[in-house]
Amino acid sequence: MTTDTIPKECAVExxxxxxxxxxxxxxxxxxxxxxxxxxMLCCITTDxxxxxxxxxxxxxxxxxxxxxxxxVDRDTSTNDTYILMANGLAGNPVIDREGEDxxxxxxxxxxxxxxxxKLMAGDGEGAHKLLEVVLSGAESHxxxxxxxxxxxxxxxxxxxxxxxxxxxGRILCAxxxxxxxxxxxQVDLVISSAAGELALVKNGIATDFSEExxxxxxxxxEVRVDIDIHMGTESATAxxxxxxxxxxxxxxxxxx
Amino acid sequence: MTTDTIPKECAVExxxxxxxxxxxxxxxxxxxxxxxxxxMLCCITTDxxxxxxxxxxxxxxxxxxxxxxxxVDRDTSTNDTYILMANGLAGNPVIDREGEDxxxxxxxxxxxxxxxxKLMAGDGEGAHKLLEVVLSGAESHxxxxxxxxxxxxxxxxxxxxxxxxxxxGRILCAxxxxxxxxxxxQVDLVISSAAGELALVKNGIATDFSEExxxxxxxxxEVRVDIDIHMGTESATAxxxxxxxxxxxxxxxxxx
Lengths: 256, 256
Known about the structure:
Order of helices and strands of chain A: EEEHEHEHHHEEEHEEH
Oligomer: homodimer
């Protein structure tokens, strides 16, 4: 049985030394998703000519910023799989070292894997929307990862999202208990979606925002939260989803 | 607004050097409960004669095994409070050092605070039952704490509990992703409640258990899971609750 509701596929074409190279992938998984490259299944293929070592290097770097940055339920599976295969048929000079070609390949890989990771988070069990949290102004990448993941995995943030509730307090609370150090009085927080953009918090204090506009923004299928902690120049992006009645239906009620 | 559904009170009497000493407490809180002595409110009073230093020592040791071992939603609050007050009216010789009297006091405190901690976990927002996880056979207390807390905070374990589903796989999965090291082939797992006791896993392999009996056991208001990892003699107990539709109602739907 699968609880996936949509096919998750993505592909790009790019050019290497005049040769057109193709890279495409598919993933499956919607519950027990908090990958630590452990029910997630991802297969990406390319016709790029690239050595096994450079392929592994690209995959290892990529996964940290894509699949390991999504969470549906904070339950890491025992068997996540990310397979990356290349057959070399594009005819480009074999990539066997770092450099411009490798960077181009990694960019294409990142485009496909980020697309697939977002498809998974947005199709989380019972989810009605994709939540993207961009944490910027961090002192280190680790700090940015810790805070952004703490926000997307919070059940209270996820239920607030399900209710289209601009509950910035739950977001700041999840940032605080993440263990990362930051000054709450330096925090700026902006929500955005296809319905517009709205600053909820400026220097740690709630703005006099329109609840109606906030609700409209949060009612969209993709919601982004930008948080700036004004400590440095590092950033990280994490993806999650709302926590709804349907998640309970899928995981508690399926035997009744 | 509070989402507590019951008053949470507990008291004991004990004897110190021939004097009757009383110790009682109250707590409130049902959401944003994953205390790290930060919405939880707990006040315990006693007429025991005891110095401020020894009172703090008793509290600091106690909280690690009681309130810091419960979780409703894994969302640590910004303002948990645990107050312990003593007025000395019992007339016992003032406790000002470690020893038999201090141990007696700590036992009484543990009885009351454990009772209050369980009342909070069982009255978690939307909860239908209290889940107690006892992890034994650990190499260290930290290992036992890490594994037991990983199990009680798993959304998939909590929804399985809501569905009265003997889903031992989700429990072993949460143990595995806790980060603690153990041999899955050495794990024994037993569930119990007022409806009986049942071994689900022996040496890492599912027993041929009765699904009907398992469902009956899990349908009770208090469910216990005993897990033995056969590595040592340390143990820890953590308390949580099931994750239900009512949790979503309380935290997502209250504005609609």
